[in-house]
Amino acid sequence: MKNEDVSRIEISDLTSLWDAIKEAKSFFEGIYPFWRGHANFVWPLQAEVFRTRVNGKRHDEVSLIRYFMAHAEARHRQCPTTGDYLGWLMLARHHGLPTRLLDWSWSPMVALYFAVQEDENGPNADGCIWALEPGRMNLQMMGERRFLAPDEAPVLELADIAFEFKKDRRDANTLARARKAFAIGGREIDLRVLVQQGAFTIHADDTDLTDLDYVYPNDRPDRPPWRRAFRVPTVSKLSLLEALRAVGIHRSALFPDLSALAEDIKSRPMLS
Q1: What pLDDT shows up at residue 123?
Q2: Judging by DSSP bridges, how do beta strands 127-132 and 227-232 pair with one another?
Q3: According to a count of CB atoms within 10 Å of the terminal CB, is the N or C end of the chain lower?
């Protein structure tokens, strides 16, 4: 993470969240950003399938998504068609499978909910909310400042790599798109995507977006930023979690299934 990306605003209550929203609006010239919450401030902006696991190995991307496809239809009412690779990646990502998608939200409150969770590897860690301006990021990645639709060619080309069994072909396609990632909208193919107001970035490789310098076509001298980080102090996490519940942001609202509902009921003092 670059120091220039870190705001002086720390999110300790909903008022300071509003301050962060206003700062992001100013930084991005009025363009509303994507938001993402991390339970640990130092986590990278890197798609999970490319991260090194505890055992030192990487995920087998093709096997993961192909196995998910083979076993999802009996467990999900409406799955994407067989050839809808991006749809499968979106569905899998929102149900926790490591993919080359990084999930974002249009809602800063949804992002904050994930930022105030405890990190299993560091229970006393500060959290983080990231704001990302999709048009500016895409300007750096492909030379056009615009939002990419999920069915556009650059997006589908990256999605296809995730399903390619032939390693030499996968490697060649990935190399041609090295260090690329695109900001795209979500398709409401699943209720979780809908209620979490989902959006995505799709990644060619293990590049951490927080490590990238700002470089634009014609090397604009001002190099306007497309990402901004806001710290969430660990001492504020519990009170923020309670404040979010008070405005309707809680687990069973963001994960609309019976398991989440049961867990939510157990956590409510007046019901347990």
Answers
A1: 66
A2: antiparallel
A3: C
Distance CA(179)–CA(192), nearest Å, equals 29
Which amino acid belongs to residue 118? E
CA distance 151 to 24: 28
Q: How far apart are CA 113 and CA 246, in angstroms?
A: 12
Residue 110 CB partners (closer than 8 Å, separation 6+): 35, 37, 196, 197, 249, 254
Number of domains in the chain: 1
Q: Which domain holds residue 36?
A: 3-266
Taking only the tens place, the pLDDT of each residue in 101-123 is 999 999 999 999 999 998 776 66
Cβ-Cβ contacts under 8 Å for 222 (sequence gap 6 or more): none
* pTM of the predicted structure, to 2 decimals: 0.91
Which tens digit of pLDDT belongs to each residue from 225-268? 999 999 999 999 999 999 999 999 998 899 888 777 787 777 77
| 27 assigned to some structural domain | yes
Q: In what order do the strands lie in the sheet with 198-203?
A: 6-10, 227-232, 127-132, 34-38, 101-105, 198-203, 181-185
Q: pLDDT per residue over 196-231, tens digit each?
A: 899 999 999 999 999 999 886 665 666 789 999 999
Residue 204: both structure tokens together: 């060619």
Contacts of 76 (CB under 8 A, 6+ apart): 91, 190
Query: Do residues 212 and 46 make contact, with C-beta atoms less than 8 angstroms apart?
Result: no
**Is residue 57 helix, strand or coil?**
coil
Q: Is 271 part of a structural domain of the chain?
A: no
* Nearby residues of 66 by Cβ (< 8 Å), 6 or more positions away: 163
